[in-house]
Each structure stands twice: as structure tokens, then as C-alpha cells.
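Morning!

This is the sequence you dropped in the shared folder:
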Amino acid sequence: MLDRVGDVMASRERLRALLDAVVGIGTDLDLRSTLQRIVEAACALADAEYGALGVISADRTELADFITHGMDPAIHARIGDLPHGRGVLGLLITDPQPVRLPDIRKHPNSYGFPPHHPPMHSFLGVPVRIREQIFGNLYLSEKQGAAEFSEDDEEIVVALAAAAGVAIDNARLYAIARRRESWLAATAEITGVLLGTVRLTEALRLIARRAREVSGAELVLVMLYDEENSRYTIDVADGDDPASGELVGRLVAVDRAAAAEFGQEKYRVVENLRAVAEWPGPVPESPALAAPLAASDVLQGVLIVTQPTDRPAGDEDAVLLSTFAGQAALALERARAQVERQHLAVLEDRERIARDLHDVVIQRLFATGMQLQGAAMQAARPDAARRINGAVDDLDATIRDIRRSIFELRGPTGPSLRGELHDAVDAAATALGFRPVLDTVGPVDSAIPDDMVPELMAVLREALSNIARHAHAAGARVTVRVTSAEVVLLVEDDGVGADPGRARGGVVNMAERAHDLGGTFELGTGPKGGTAITWRVPLAG
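The structure's back. C-alpha cells below.
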């Protein structure tokens, strides 16, 4: 009777200890802390010296994490890599049933222990389930005060594992809720950006920074898609490594069909970011999530977020990133729309100024010139007539300058042929010792075909180079004239001149470029002596 009473009292104490352990493991919703408390509670209930909780990987083949208790940190460090779930530990992965052994070393599946591992004999393993799914396994070793773990130990650890599954599930749901809240806050911040003036570069940097803060990523990349050239341009790189800034501006080639297919997806999981492309810079070998930045079914770019190796991305993380990327794509679309509106406003202003110059200013100057010409015919003194004719010539030159300005105003904004011509003349000034005069007549930017521009620029650079090397000139003039039928490049200098019969090298190349385009090339003497090169190409050629 006394023995029976003692067993009842012992059972009540163990039950009370189990209830205390269940309450204890649910006091905090941090997942890592919860797992640590579960291992400690299991060791206390079963009187085990060592305990561990192995978290099974997503593919259910090995252990992705291993939380231990009872082992000295120095010994733990000397052992090195954590177990992957092979041998006896793998029994519970392939067959999730409790395992109790008097000596783990004698089991036929035993792999033995790595160097520096403390000796272990008795063993108890119990699966931890969450809603009919195995989350991981509880491993206990070295029963204190007995040779092996008893059936009561197994039952109480099984009961603890059931409660642990609920606690783990709550902690995981809480972690997901926290991440969802963080992603929603970041999405709301991007939405706030949409309400005001969106500056493209600032918006992209904000997108990358918030994505990295929320996800805890090592690196976040924002790449813009260039469909015409089938490539991505890394516009923003936000990472822990200071060298990640070197990625900005780099190009990543991509197949156009693959890019179009990716634009229709919500997200894509990348197992190894370094392996998926020939990255032009420091990209870690880690898993990543890639979400397309697409608006109105048009791929504008991609948002890449690396994932911590200790917390692989789940479906929830991928969906949240996809939602965030969708909002980021709207910010990108709005920024581009604002740039286009500003561009349009500039073009409208330039068109209005060009129209006013043409309809008002030029007409007044032309009328004034006509009046002066009439007065010159009636002037009695020859010097007065000369002065009036000089004024008329000045007015004609002014009209030509204004017309050139009108063409420039009606030309494209940004890079243009006129700009290239000015750059080429400026670049030649150092070698020449002076800056040549540049005149452009007609719609230079809009009328000259794109495939003719490289030929024209090559001829101009060769002509200026020849002046610098052979002419010994003190001045030069470059004129580019465009009519409805042809393009004429005239390069004149006041140097020592050139013999057309001895033309060779670069001069021959200039002539061949003209002939290839159906045009002509002339090398002669300028109005002030020196050399005059005339390169003439039909627009229909």
C-alpha cells in the first residue's frame, strides 16, 4: 500500500512538473526562445543530461536547425557542424515514431560520434507534430540515476511534445503576423510616396532599404529592365557589404522570352543567387526571392531579396514580397509618368518659343532687312550704302542663328547630334590650339538618319585630326547643313592647304564613307586659302 501511495505521489509530481513545463514553454512567442525552453523542459522532465530539438528541412530529408541543451559551449564549438539527421537521428525523420534505446551506439543505424563529442548511451527520441505535420524531433540522452529511459519518461516526453507543437505553432503564427505587419507598413510607406512627387532614384532606394530592413536580407537589388537591349541594369544595391555599391550601373544580360515569362509570375524562388547569372560584382551564394516589378502587364524591373540561411523563405514571405513589389512597381510607373509629363511640358514650352521666334521675331527682322535694302538703293553716298548692306548681312546672319535655335528647340531633349557635334569640336580644341567655329543649318537632329550619324561623326573627327596634324592653321569652321534632299558637311581651315592628288589614309576613308552612302567627297581650297573638305550625302541614299 505504501509503495502504491508513493507511485501515486510521484505521478502527481511528474504531472505537475509537466503542467508547469507546458505553461513555461508558452510564456513567450519568440520562436527561437520557445524551442530552447522546450528542450530544457524535456531534459528536466525525463532527467536527461543532454537534450536537443532538430528542426526538419522543407524537403523533409534532413535537419535544418539543431537546438541543444546541456553541452558545454566550448565542446559544442569543437564539434563543429551540426548533425544533418542521419543514423539514429534520421530514424524519426523517415519513421516519425518514438524511439527508446538503452545504448545508442549498439543500434545498427548508428553512425558513431564526431571527434570531441561527449560519450552518450541511453537515448529517447520523440517527434514534434504541428497539425499532422512533423516540425522536428526531440532528442534526449544520458538518463540521470538510471541505465535507460523508462516508459513513463517516454509518455511524459510524448505529452510534452504534443504541447510543444501547439506552442511552436503559436510562435510561428506570431512571427508571420509580425513579418506581415512589417511588410504592410513598408507597403504603406511606398503608398505614401505615390501621393506626392515621386523621384525615381529616391523611390528605388526607399524600396530597397525598406525591403532589406523588413526581410533581414544580406543584399537587396533593384534592377530595371531594358527590353530593347534584352538586359537588366542594376539601379540600386543595398547590402551589408560596402562593396555591394559597386554593383550599381552594371548590366546583366537576360533572354527576352524568359523575361516576358517572369513578368507574368508573382515571384520566383532562387536556391543560389550567385549561380543563376554571371553577376558583375559581389553577390552572395545564398537563396533569394525575386519578384517582378510589373505594372499593366509590362515588366519594368525585378526586386531581388536574399534570404537568411537560418530562416529560409516560406510561401507567406514570398506572397508578402510580391505584394510589396507590386506597390513598388506602381511607384516606379508613377515616377516615370511624372518624368514624361515634365518632359512634355518642356517640349510644349520649347514649341511655343520656337513658334514665337518664327512667326514674330524673324518676320520683323526680315521686314527690317527689306526696308534697309530699299534705303540702300536710294542712298547717295557709297559708304552709307555699304554700311546699310552690312547691316542687312548682319540681319541675315541673325535670322540664320534664330532658325538654328528654332531647330534646336524642336529637336529631341537629352542626347542629340548637335550635342555630339559640339563635343567633337570641343575635344579637338586641345590639339588644334583653338576652337573651330561650328554652324548647323536645318533640322540636324530630326532629319539625319541614325545609321548616318556614326559616318558623319567619323568624317568630322578625321577632318579635324588632319587639320591638327598637317594644316598649321590658326582657325577653322565646321558647317553641317541639312536640306530636304541631302546632308552636307563642310570643314574649312586657313592653313597651308593640301594637294588632292596626294590624298591617302584618312582622306581616302572619308571619300569611301561618302560613296558607300551614295554621296560625294571633295577636297579643295577654301575661300581664305587652306583646305576645304566637302562631304555630301543624299538623305534618300
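Headline: The first strand starts at residue 48 and ends at 56.

More detail when I'm at my desk.
O.
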